[in-house]
Automatic annotation (TrEMBL):
Compartments in which it is found: Nucleus
PANTHER family in the cross-refs: NUCLEOPORIN NUP43
Record keyword Nucleus present: yes
Protein name in the entry: Uncharacterized protein
Length: 366
């Protein structure tokens, strides 16, 4: 398996709590960089959303070091199940998080100070969104509308307007179908995923249910898998990426829906080596390695990054061997690529740490 290149720099920041998820907050200046982290203390059972500032610390006259310093926090009554941030610099920045108790919360963060200015939360005891854990949420770029899905089979849209949360139920499968992942494709379209490697495409202009389905029987004996993460490229919304069980990474092209394009997965008959054989927890298009792809055919799958339960952070490119960036002795629970500086990737490690990878800006170095 290919290595990550000699210029790859990895910083590890030990934490006092388990880190379930991490997200970059969109930067309004080059001097203010913040990371939002969902943390959990197994000893006390407490959970929180923490905002950390990435800062240069002077060690001497000729050397500086990076540090990740706590800036603010918000306590959660239940463990955080999903975390998303708006990706458009604004004042304030919006963070959406869901919990295993079935609640959805919006936090508003000062983009310069990194402090949590306000929050929007459901009334105590109110359970109008989901019955049971919320599996996944996703925010529109401006952070004003959120889609949530759960194991109860509900699909909800929640918008923020004048200091209140407005809710609309898109679908309720009444527990007959469980949804485990969701991602916006446009202002009116989104994709969901769940059991049996199933994917669904929804269009709010066409109510009544999903407008397209991908069924797990396309995977030749792998239909028992679960989709954990989805991504949709903003300029190629017809191709939906998914990562899930047994190292499976595949693309679903809405124009040719019957057969998914398999990029990785144990036992899926791939000729090239798969970077992992366990659960793929997160998947994102890798914007650093897309410069040379602007003129490629639209059917070409752009490079993607994944993280896994067996401690791998890797980049997959169709038709090439994977590029392994990290191989940890513990799970890599989540990662996020900085939208403004795509060479920088932040990761949450199961062994109570946050890692920062700084890749060479020239993608050919890989």
């Amino acid at each position: 398996m290919a290595g990550g290149g000699g210029d790859l720099v990895v910083h590890r920041f030990p934490q006092s709590k388990a880190v379930d998820s991490v997200r970059w907050l969109p930067a309004v200046s080059a001097f203010d960089r913040f990371v939002a982290a969902a943390v959990h203390d197994p000893d006390s059972g407490s959970s929180a959303l923490e905002v950390h500032a990435l800062e240069l610390i002077q060690q001497g006259e000729e050397s500086d070091a990076l540090d990740l310093l706590p800036r603010d926090s918000w306590s959660s009554a239940s463990r955080i199940s999903a975390l998303r941030c708006s990706n458009v610099p604004a004042e304030p920045l919006t963070v959406a998080l869901s919990t295993f108790a079935g609640s959805l919360h919006f936090l508003f963060v000062d983009p310069v100070e990194g402090t949590i200015e306000s929050e929007l939360s459901p009334v105590a005891g109110e359970r109008w969104l989901h019955s049971g854990p919320i599996s996944a949420v996703d925010l529109q770029p401006e952070g004003r509308e959120c889609v949530s899905v759960g194991q109860d089979g509900r699909v909800n849209l929640v918008s923020v307007a004048e200091g209140s949360m407005e809710h609309r139920r898109v679908h309720d499968a009444r527990g007959l179908v469980s949804y485990t992942a969701v991602r916006w494709g446009s202002s009116v379209e989104f994709a969901t995923g769940g059991l049996a490697f199933g994917l669904q495409w929804w269009d709010q202009r066409k109510p009544g249910g999903p407008v397209s389905h991908l069924k797990g029987d396309s995977f030749q004996g792998m239909a028992s898998g679960i989709v954990h993460s989805i991504d949709v490229h903003p300029s190629r919304k017809h191709i939906c990426l998914a990562g899930g069980s047994s190292g499976a990474v595949f693309a679903w092209d809405l124009r040719w829906q019957k057969q998914p394009v398999l990029l990785s997965g144990a036992g899926l008959g791939q000729q090239r080596q798969s970077p992992c054989e366990s659960e793929v927890w997160e998947i994102q298009y890798d914007s650093l390695i897309q410069t040379g792809f602007s003129s490629t055919p639209s059917a070409k799958i752009l490079p993607v990054m994944i993280c896994s339960e067996d401690g791998v952070l890797a980049v997959l490119e169709q038709g090439k061997d994977p590029i392994e960036l990290l191989a940890e002795p513990c799970a890599v629970n989540a990662f996020d690529i900085d939208g403004r500086n795509p060479s920088d990737v932040v990761c949450s490690l199961e062994w109570e740490a946050i890692a920062l990878l700084m890749r060479p800006r020239d993608s050919s170095a890989f």
